[in-house]
Design a protein that fits this description.
The chain has about 300 residues and is mainly beta. Among the domains are: about 95-180, Immunoglobulin-like (Sandwich); about 185-280, Immunoglobulin-like (Sandwich). Helices cover about 10% and strands about 40% of the residues. The chain has one helix at about 25-50, and strands at about 1-5, 10, 55-60, 65, 95-105, 105, 110-120, 120-130, 135-140, 145-150, 155, 160-165, 170-175, 175, 180, 185-190, 200-210, 220, 225-230, 235-240, 245, 250-260, 265-270, 275-280. The strands form 6 sheets. Strands 7, 8, 10, 11, 12 and 15 form a 6-stranded antiparallel beta sheet that branches. Strands 5, 6, 9, 13 and 14 form a 5-stranded mixed beta sheet that branches. A hairpin with a 2-residue loop joins strand 7 and strand 8. The protein is flat and about 140 Å long. The relative contact order is 0.10.
């Protein structure tokens, strides 16, 4: 390109780019390549991202959704650290217990002595037989707190055990006294209760025989075949087989009638030996429940203007 000014002539040529200078087109291409690399990397990371599967759900016919719970039945939980029961031992030791078992008639051969060692809430025990002369002995035991009781089935027992402290090398002598539990008893029950004036009431008399079990516990066992004679005072009348014999369950069933309200005054004897007062509710008058009436009031018809 040439220009001519005042007789002068210039000729212009494109200037050469410095070595290393990037053209605008190349710069744009480079930027696009960088963005493409970043986009590909982001897509690869999303593809490798782990998304947990949501819990499965079930739909019933009504359209409600039920979530399936995880089964944890096979999970083993750690222990809570509770203290297991302590095993209480009596031996070996350098202490001893001994004594004599006395009954109503003197020494009680054939009885049993239960010696229990108490440690906190735990108990360890040993049964000791009584010799023919009524004596017993338990050597070689440890010291500590002890509970001792004795019995002889089926007639002798003690209702309150003896508690003692035994030193590590003590030799204590304990004499235990047994009471006889072979008496008979009568109790009564009514149906309906209380008995009502002018109505027949069932009277059940129960005969029992006290007995000592093999565990030393005193219980009342039914007494079948016992002869029971019941009688009442005042305005009470008894009907049935009286006197009568108790059945296999130790029961005698009679009928009772009240002619006036007040105490029944009921007693009975067993085998013509012992007489017992039978505690039952007093005779009462039947009072009918009040009659409830409902009155319905019908409002007058309304006049429509």
């Amino acid at each position: 390109m040439s220009d001519r000014f005042g007789g002068w002539r210039w000729t212009t040529r494109p200037a050469a780019l410095p070595v290393g200078l990037v053209s605008p087109v190349s710069l744009i291409v480079l930027v696009m390549l960088v963005m493409l690399v970043v986009l590909v990397s982001a897509c690869t990371g999303v593809a490798n991202l782990h998304i947990p599967t949501p819990p499965s759900t079930a739909h019933d016919a009504s359209g409600s959704t039920t979530t399936v719970s995880t089964d944890l039945s096979g999970v083993v939980l750690p222990p809570l650290g509770s203290t297991p029961p302590t095993t209480v031992v009596l031996t070996p030791g350098a202490a001893s217990l001994s004594g004599v078992i006395i009954g109503p008639a003197g020494p009680a051969p054939g009885a049993i002595v239960l010696v229990e060692r108490l440690v906190g809430d735990s108990v360890g025990g040993k049964l000791v037989p009584v010799a023919p002369d009524g004596t017993w002995k338990l050597p070689g035991i440890r010291g500590g707190r002890y509970r001792v009781r004795a019995w002889r089935a089926p007639d002798l027992a003690m209702t309150t055990p003896q508690i003692l402290l035994l030193g590590a090398k003590d030799n204590q002598n304990i004499n235990l006294t047994l009471m006889a539990f072979n008496g008979q008893n009568l109790t009564a029950s009514l149906s309906p209760s209380p008995p009502l004036v002018g109505q027949v009431t069932a009277l059940v008399i129960q005969a029992t025989q006290q007995t000592v079990g093999s565990d030393g516990v005193v219980r009342g066992a039914p007494l079948p075949g016992a002869n029971v004679f019941a009688f009442a005072a005042g305005t009470v009348v008894l009907a049935g087989t009286n006197p009568g014999t108790t059945d296999a369950g130790g029961r005698l069933v009679l009928s009772l009638g009240c002619s006036a309200p007040g105490p029944v005054g009921l007693s009975a004897s067993i085998n013509s030996l012992n007489t017992f007062s039978l505690m039952v509710p007093d005779c009462a008058i039947f009072i009918p429940p009040p009659v409830t009436t409902t009155t319905t009031v019908t409002p007058p018809p309304s006049s429509v203007p």
